[in-house]
Structures are given as C-alpha cells and as structure tokens.
Amino acid sequence: MSESAGGQGEGSGRLRTPVEGALRAVQSLVALEDTDRAAQLYEELGDAQRERIRHEAEQGPAKERRGFVEVLRRARDFLGAARLMDGHGEDATAADLYFQSGRYMAAAESYLRAGDALRAAAAFERGGALERALAVYQELGARDAMAQCLVRLERPFEAAELYRELGQAHAEVEALGGVRPEDPRFVDAILRTCQLLDAEGFTHRALAVLADAVSSSEAARGAPALVTEKARLLRRMGMEAEAEAMLIRRAGGVSAPAANGYRFLKAIPIFGELSLEDMKDLYRLARQVIIAPGAVLLEKGAPGVGLFVLMDGSVDVFSGSEEDARHLNTLGPGAYLGEISLVQDGPVSAHVRARTSVRALRISRTDFERYVDTHEAAALRIYRLFTQNLAGRVRALST
C-alpha cells in the first residue's frame, strides 16, 4: 500500500492510518499502558475510524476495555467511554461519564442501576425530566429536593406545603408567591403569606401583598378571610378602620418593606450574574438559623460548613480560637461568611463567634452542590465570578 494511503503524508498534519492499523496501534499502546499516546492517536483519527475502534474495544476482554475507557476519557470522548462501560456491571462509572458528556437521561438511568438514586434524581432534573426526578425524590423522602422540583414544575402550592412541614418559612413565602390569581387556592396562599410575613416582622410587606392580591383578583377582593386578616394587620400597626379603607384605595402605594435575607443573598458578588429564577431557587435552599450570643459560627482550621448571611445581630472575627487571639473585625447585617467553602475544599481561615443573638441564612455545601448540579448556567456564572474575585484578591495581596 502506498504511503499516501497507509501512512502519514509529509506535512499533511493528519494521520491517515488504515482502520486495522490504527486499531492495532491503539491496542498496543493500551497494552503498554501508554494512555497519553493512545489518546493522542485516537484524537487524530476520523469519526469512522474512532467508531470502529470503539466497536472493537467493546468486544474485547474486560481489562482491555477498561484501558480503552481511560484512553477515551483522556481524549475527552466521554460519551464513547460511557458506552464502553455501559452494560458491563460498572454503572456508576458509566453514569459519571454520561453526565460529563451531557447525556443526563442516560446518566440518570445508569445511576439508578448503580443504586445511587439521589444522583439519578439530580441527573433527571438537570435533563429536564422533572416528573421523573420528583418521583425519585419522593421515594427517597428528600423533601427539600421535592419542593424545588415542584416549584420548577409550576406547582407552587404543593411546594409551599412541603416547606411548611420543613419549617422553612422564607422558602414557603417564596413558593406561595408563585400561586397565580386563577388558582382556586390563591386566597389560601395569600392568607398564609401574610401570616408568615407578619410573624417575621414584615407587617408592611404583608399588607402590600394583601393589597396587591385584592387589586388583581376578584376572588381575593370578596374573600372574608382576607378582610379579617387585613383588619388584624392594621391593628398590629396601630391604625384605625379609616386607615384600612384608605389602604384599599391606595393598593400598591404601601411603603417599601424592610430588607430581608433575599436582598442580602443577592448582593453577594459570586451570585451577581444569576437570573431571577436561579436566584429564587438558591434562596429557597437557604435555611434561617438563630445563633445564640457567644456561639461559634466558624471554627478556624475546621472544614468549611457553607455560607452564612447575617440578617440581624453581629459577629466578631478573630485570628484564632485562643483566648488571646487578635480581634480582626465585627460584622453585622448584610455581611456574609464562608462563601469560599461552597466552591472550594479547605479549612476555615478565621474564627467567628456571635457577639449578639444572630439571625442568619445558611446554605450548606451539600445543598449548594445539588444546586449547581441542577442549574448548569448558574454554576458557570458562579464559578467564573468566584475565579475573578479570587484573582483580584491575589493581585491585591501581591501589590
């Protein structure tokens, strides 16, 4: 056979090895465990040759197939590697490879076969199969994840009921905000929202929600329960019945409510490019916590536990846990701590203790990892901004 048909032409820059020769060459390199050269050869072949090599590898013995899997992984042919692993009792590895290739449905099915139902559900969710994800989360009893799925399925009232069972009042309010005026449960949603906001100290905001509901829904306008609730809220503010009538006439003119945790969370730089929908999903993951004076939020040297966003109270930041540790700073509402632990493993760099009683939002690393697994666009934006911020800090330290 001529060189132009069977070898690499001078200056061609592309390998033109016959299929059999290419296959044998890759097999030889695999046998020698020279994965890098095998991957390079595989990358230089045409689509048809690569397909033939994958077919032959699939028929080969298990050890050789695993070697080919590593070659394909190194060449970033994650889908080809996944298909080589599929059906050979190595479902967990195949699932990871399917996930890397963007074949989320195939990844989910493989995770199910491997017995990893939680990752299967996340893959179903990532792939848009929300009903399948919801069914798996239900079997697992993963109620937080169920609630998130219900929100994305536009079933906000059901999501709110789950958040109520979980005691996550702020997430319940956010879910109830998705109940539309035409929903027969709209009045119940508004009533519950007002009660929750008032209990959290946002009575002005509760009145604003109620006034907006009355102006946008005929059912809400004539609901006795909402009239009673409005009277109760006005009494809480020390206003008379005449003020109630004026408030109805001025629906939408209520002064702006006090700031809540959502505004503080949204202001964190690494979340600065999230869409409204992604930001709301992240906020629903946050849990409100109350921390007693003197309690430790972050312990220097310990593994990071996630993000804290301060809403009320203040904390002291020290260089260490020792009695004579240097006091570095005092932080109050709007400050945030531990955001690095969301995206990077490593020990905590400072010791943080509550100076007063503190009310904060907390997002654990586990919940955040599930969030980025199911929100691809948000994950890309978060990691990009994190990298930029980290680079900025490094430059600041070096000047």
TrEMBL record:
It holds the Pfam family cNMP_binding. Residues 270-389 form the Cyclic nucleotide-binding domain. GO terms for molecular function: DNA-binding transcription factor activity. GO terms for cellular component: cytosol. Coiled coil: none annotated. InterPro entries: cNMP-bd_dom (IPR000595), cNMP-bd_dom_sf (IPR018490), Env_Response_Regulators (IPR050397), RmlC-like_jellyroll (IPR014710). SMART domains: cNMP (SM00100). This is Cyclic nucleotide-binding protein. It comes from Corallococcus macrosporus DSM 14697.
